[in-house]
What we know:
Distance between the termini: 37 Å
Number of helices: 13
Strand content: 15-25%
Strand order of the largest sheet: 1-9-10-11-15-14
Radius of gyration: 29 Å
Order of helices and strands: EEHEHEEHEHEHEHHEEEHHEEEEHHHH
Number of strands: 15
Shape: elongated
Largest sheet: 6 strands, antiparallel
Amino acid sequence: MPLPxxxxxxxxxxxxxxxxxxRSLSFQLDPALVSKSFHDTGNALAWLREHGEGAPRREAPLxxxxxTYARSLDQCNVALDVEQxxxxxxxxxxxxxxxxxxxxxxxxxxxxVEFCAAxxxxxxxxxxxxxxxxxxxxxxxxxxxLIDRYIKKSDDNALDRLEAEIGALEHEFFCAxxxxxxxxxxxxxxxxxxxxxxxxxxxxxxxxxxxxEHYLFPNPAGMLLIDRDGKARLLVVETDESLGAHYEMAVxxxxxxxxxxxxxxxxxxxxxxxxxxxxxxxxxxxxxxYSQAAQICRGKQDYYWSLFELPxxxxxxxxxxxxxxxxxxxxxxxxxxxxxxxxxxxxxxASSVAQRLxxxxxxxxxxxxxxxxxxAQHTHQYPEQPHARxxxxxxxxxxxxxxxxxQGGA
Length: 410
């Protein structure tokens, strides 16, 4: 699986004409999956067109400029500001970038396929999550490039599968945005971004340290890893060539023999953060404080790496943590709910009537089975019959259902 040049938690947009289903789905999804719900397709389209198109322009670190002396437009210079990539972590609204849409099919204003077609120009990934559309419609939409996944609400473990697909599509979202950038970087000093062995290393460190976002870092070359609480770590990556450059600079600055020996043996990773990244005479014999033992990632070439914890005062640590974003979002939602006026008498009466009608239907179903058996005994025929049940629309079957993890902990 390719390694995105950068990745952070994003927003999942839920679109369904049933407001009660949206509330239930939002409640049952993993709290770490930040979501925004719309039961009106018009409002959803307007919001996505504004926020879905704005985010790529804010974050795009790759730009092309034409050489004014070139006689052909086929030749141009590409200006790449690698610093801009990790600065995305300074944007407080990065967590509200919409990356995945979960759309119902049967809606009054337009169906889910038509909704996705209206947004096909956006980079968001799309899931048709419905109980109405058949597989033929879904396959046709998939072949036309309008949707990326299709899940039936009535499927076993539909909620768990939905969460898994949202995570996978978020990864694909960042991979798609990184493809061109990755190819350009691989031509320079960032060959590790295209190496599957290095991608596996980043994935292992992500799981080990609870990393929720990462960004390519320019100096020293590597990956900036940030966990849920904003703790930043720098994965510094060196090659034989780059360590050779460190050695030559150390020689030119009369470095201690112990440092020179360690660099020749490729057994340390230096991180002289207080300067330009290279050794200078101001570090003297305290070079141990700026170095860690080297580990090796064997891929298309050998990469020497070490993981440095960055202090809170480091510029790369000045970011809004994901956990703080979740807390502030929850406080805002609670304040919004508290400010909502109480339901009117008419709404409460309508809800009460609906509950009584449902109770009567269930009571009728419960009484139907004993009566049927009594008639069968009277005629000396007692065939096996399935239990009578109230037919519930597929889109409502998920509402109120406990997730497997919750059932196990009850």
